[in-house]
Amino acid sequence: MADKILFGTKEWAPHNFNFMNGCSNDCVYCYAKDMAIRFKRKTSDTWREELPVSLENKSFNKKNGAVMIPSSHDITPGNIKIALYVMEKLIKSGNELLLVTKPHLSCVKHIVDKFETSKGQIKFRFTIGSADSQILKLWEPGAPSFQERFSSLTYAFERGYSTSISCEPLLDNHFDLLYEKVVPFITGSIWVGKINMAVKRVRTNTGGAFPQAKVTALLETQTDEKIIDLFNRYKKNAMIEWKESIKKVVINHGLM
Ligand code: SF4
217: domain CATH number? Predict the structure, then answer.
């Protein structure tokens, strides 16, 4: 079964659409930043500068399946105008959009208010790996606080939009606290996943400046034993979806 698990963004949507290079959230574990540094498109310092990519050869046609926006950057106050333009074009073609974001409240308000009559074509997936803003600040220095993400969630929920959460990566061992806070405002699923390739990615993305002890401490909360304990506590909860990183652990231990 393990080889049938879908990886990365394909777990969520068959298509994605990106319109920026770089991301001001500047998460220290970011896969896209790691790749951009490796292929010399960005450096550890310039990743946070957001530059628009050309939309000239991009197709806005109707796709067969949902379109995830974005997958290699985020929707931020610096690019919200372009984001709204892209979304409008894709929605007009009849696409279903999965908006995956560490939500800035001003951006969510723009989207929610603008697409009121097309809300059936939009699903929000808000990334929240901890309910503690200090922890979010450490790992995702340019991204919004927990309170801002929570306000974004409730804003979208109260206006009748589809809402879900991505707790990937989990950034502490207090998932239960986060779950209790967000669950009343979720219409879909809560996805849970481990941090991937943390040691190497964090080192590359921060030029070695991030304290290794913090990475070690987080990894100690995601040992197989602790992941199985989390799985056992939530395995009967129909709202919880396990990302590939957790499914692998569970399958390896014969529990799935
Ligand atoms: S929000 Fe996503 S794309 Fe942006 S830095 Fe964080 S992980 Fe990378």
Answer: 3.20.20.70
